[in-house]
Design goal:
Largest sheet: 7 strands, antiparallel
Number of helices: 3
Strand content: 25-35%
Distance between the termini: 44 Å
Shape: globular
Structural class: alpha+beta
Strand order of the largest sheet: 3-4-5-6-7-9-8
Length: 143
Amino acid sequence: MSDPAAIVDSFVRLTSRCLDALLTVYGGNERPTVWTGLWLVPRDGSDPVRSGVLEGVGSFRLHGIGCRFELDTGEDVDVDWDWDGRTVFNSWRLLMYAHSIGNETVTEQELRAAAHQAPSVVTLEADKFTFSHRRYDVTRPES
């Protein structure tokens, strides 16, 4: 896949698949303090986790304010949640995805421009994007 628009579209579809799978197993997240990072709360009531395996999808690992998915098929996708609880990504994350699918020629600038034009993406800032729906947003705990 070499078309930047197709890479952005594929990233959005694949990330949605990963986040849907995550929401099936985990009912919410906890971020008790800045120091403890993000945790996912399993729907079965067991202890919160920072990593795991999603059956039929791959593995995930929370980092700071985001999550990286390593799919069984070899692709890697990564998103963050901003301080407003929105699921966000940028051109660097799109580039890392492109590299994971074997495209070393597309540039970060091409991917940023394609994201600005993608109907499934909302531009929040010059290089900060979110999904066109709010399905993966999280609620920020009250301070």
